[in-house]
């Protein structure tokens, strides 16, 4: 629901910009040089909320149990991670952007309900985690974003752009469990691991507003809906930040980041579905010239 409102807001702003500002190329740019031709941000992403659901399938077990990692397996629901992003501007019209961060979460729990996990490496095609089993879960996620942006309106006080790029996402999930076999004294131990590198094209729209000589606000919205080979799904992201040019080439910033991901995979490394929602705050140091 929140992302639907964001989408409506961004589209509405774009329509207002198209209606209010000039459409001829000569009027969309002024004679002021870009304040920032190059910018790199070093900081932290304070993720205050994770909501991750995952389902493992196999060829013999097409539908596994949907597992809420934070609720069912006690996987960390918050995390602080390092983050680096920035851009290089060729001129007032064209630039390239990049972002990288990763997530390393784990959980220890006692299973309160039976879970069927499809496992392509298992002869039976699945593992069954029984009630009462001790479960250890490891969630690893890496994100590298590379993109191009075209500023169709770029003046000293404001800028609007559209862009396209590639989000390369690496997902690695490991679930290990230990359980006592019913009516025996034997112990059953097993683990399931699934991993995939998912390259996804994205489209984006964003803008900048120069509030003063020192302060600026930046907004960016990314959207993806597509199926490529064995992968498919959607991804939405909204970013809003405020930056202060404290010194000649050094400044500081804070922001808000919302992400909503929903993916499916059907290959030998990963078969199943996962969706993840996260939200958090950004704090960073920026270097620019």
The CATH superfamily appears as OMPT-like
Q: Terminal Cα separation, in Å?
A: 39 Å
What's the number of structural domains? 1
**Averaging pLDDT over every residue, what do you get?**
86
From the alpha-carbon coordinates, what is the Rg to the nearest angstrom? 23 Å
Helix content: under 10%
SSE string = HEEHEEEEEEEEEEE
**Main CATH class:** Mainly Beta
Q: How many β-strand runs?
A: 13
Inertia-based shape? elongated
The strand order across the widest sheet is 1-3-4-7-8-9-10-11-12-13
Q: Runs with pLDDT <50, length 5+?
A: none
For the record, the CATH architecture stands as: Beta Barrel
Nutshell version of this structure?
The chain is mainly beta and 289 residues long. Helix content is 8%, strand content 65%. It has helices spanning 2-20, 69-72; strands at 38-56, 67-68, 79-89, 94-110, 115-118, 126-129, 134-154, 158-180, 187-210, 215-228, 231-244, 250-266, 271-288.
What would you note in describing this structure?
By secondary structure, the chain is mostly beta strands. The chain has a single domain, classed as OMPT-like (Lipocalin), CATH 2.40.128. Helices cover 8% and strands 65% of the residues. The protein is built from 2 helices and 13 strands; from the N terminus they run H-E-E-H-E-E-E-E-E-E-E-E-E-E-E. It has helices at residues 2-20, 69-72; strands at 38-56, 67-68, 79-89, 94-110, 115-118, 126-129, 134-154, 158-180, 187-210, 215-228, 231-244, 250-266, 271-288. The protein has a 10-stranded antiparallel β-barrel. A hairpin with a 4-residue loop joins strand 3 and strand 4. It starts with a helix and ends with a strand. The mean pLDDT is 86.
């Amino acid at each position: 629901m929140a992302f639907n409102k964001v989408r409506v807001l961004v589209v509405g702003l774009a329509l207002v910009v198209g209606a209010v500002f000039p459409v001829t190329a000569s009027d969309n740019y002024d004679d002021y040089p870009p304040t920032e031709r190059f910018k790199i941000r070093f900081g932290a992403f304070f993720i205050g909320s994770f909501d991750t659901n995952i389902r493992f399938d196999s060829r013999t077990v097409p539908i596994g149990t949907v597992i809420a990692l934070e609720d069912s397996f006690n996987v960390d629901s918050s995390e602080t991670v390092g983050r680096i992003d920035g851009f290089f501007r060729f001129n007032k019209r064209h630039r390239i952007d990049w972002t990288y961060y990763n997530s390393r979460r784990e959980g220890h729990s006692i299973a309160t309900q039976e879970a069927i996990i499809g496992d392509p490496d298992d002869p039976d095609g699945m593992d069954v985690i029984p009630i009462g089993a001790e479960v250890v879960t490891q969630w690893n996620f890496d994100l590298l974003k590379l993109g191009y942006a075209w500023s169709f309106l770029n003046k000293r006080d404001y800028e609007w752009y559209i862009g396209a790029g590639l989000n390369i996402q690496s997902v690695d999930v490991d679930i290990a469990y230990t359980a006592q076999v019913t009516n025996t004294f034997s112990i059953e131990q097993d683990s399931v691991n699934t991993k995939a590198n998912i390259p996804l094209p994205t489209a984006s729209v964003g803008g900048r507003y120069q509030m003063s000589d020192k302060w600026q606000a930046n907004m960016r919205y990314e959207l993806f809906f597509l199926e490529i080979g064995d992968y498919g799904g959607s991804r939405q992201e909204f970013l809003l930040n405020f930056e202060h040019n404290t010194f000649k080439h050094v400044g500081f910033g804070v922001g808000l980041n919302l992400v909503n991901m929903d993916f499916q995979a059907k290959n030998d490394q990963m078969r199943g579905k996962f969706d993840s929602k996260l939200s958090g705050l950004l704090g960073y140091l920026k270097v620019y010239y």
